[in-house]
Amino acid sequence: SAVISQKPSRDICQRGTSLTIQCQVDSQVTMMFWYRQQPGQSLTLIATANQGSEATYESGFVIDKFPISRPNLTFSTLTVSNMSPEDSSIYLCSVARGQLFSHYEQYFGPGTRLTVT
Amino acid sequence: ILNVEQSPQSLHVQEGDSTNFTCSFPSSNFYALHWYRWETAKSPEALFVMTLNGDEKKKGRISATLNTKEGYSYLYIKGSQPEDSATYLCAFNSRTTSGTYKYIFGTGTRLKVLA
Hints:
The complex is a heterodimer.
Chain A: E1 4-7, E2 10-13, E3 19-25, E4 31-37, E5 43-49, E6 56-57, E7 68-72, E8 75-80, E9 89-96, E10 106-108, E11 112-116
Chain B: E1 5-7, E2 10-14, E3 19-24, E4 30-38, E5 45-50, E6 56-59, E7 62-67, E8 72-77, E9 86-95, E10 101-105, E11 109-114
Parallel strand pairs in B: 2-11
Antiparallel strand pairs in B: 1-3, 3-8, 4-5, 4-9, 6-7, 7-8, 9-10, 9-11
C-alpha cells in the first residue's frame, strides 16, 4: 500500500483566485493521478501526472485551468486556476502500483474539499 | 461514452440488517471491476478487484460477485454495523483492442447504518 497526504484538507476561496493542492506519497511511484468529485457526481479523472514530462489531461480538462507539477516521484501539485463556483469539489490524488495501466489498485489521498464563493 | 451506474444512490439500514447494492457497467472491453469504500474525511480504500466472470470475493462480512456477460456486480454486507457507514464506489476498468485502458467510477452508494 501507500500512504498519501494532501494539503490543504479543505479551503474556501473567492471567485477568480487560484488554489494549489499538494500531494505527498511515502514512497516513489510512477503513476500519479488527480481526480475531482463534484457534488452528486462520480469521481472524474482530471489528468495523469508524469514525472519529468507534461501531464496527460482527460477530455474536458485543460492545462491552463488545472496546471500540474510533478517534480519527483513522491510529490505532485494541482492548481485550480481562476476559480468559479463550479469548481467546488473534492479533489483527490491517487497513485497506482504496477507497470502497466492495468487492473491495479489505486491508493488515494484523503482529498481536498474546495468551496468557491 | 462509458457509463457506470450504481444503485441505490443511498440507503439507510438498521444495525444487524444485511444489504446489497449494484454496479452496472458496459459489457464490452471489460478488464477489471473494483470496489472501494470511502468514509467521510478519509481516503477511499480498495475492497476488491475482480477480473473473471463469476468471480466472488469476500472480506469479513463484505462480499462481491461479478457478471461480466451482463455487466453487473453486487456488493453484499452481512449483519451491517454502524462502522460500515460509508460511500461504496465501483470502478470499471476497461481495455480496448488498441490497448488503451480506462478507469471509470460510478457515483457511489451512500450507506448509513443506524444503531
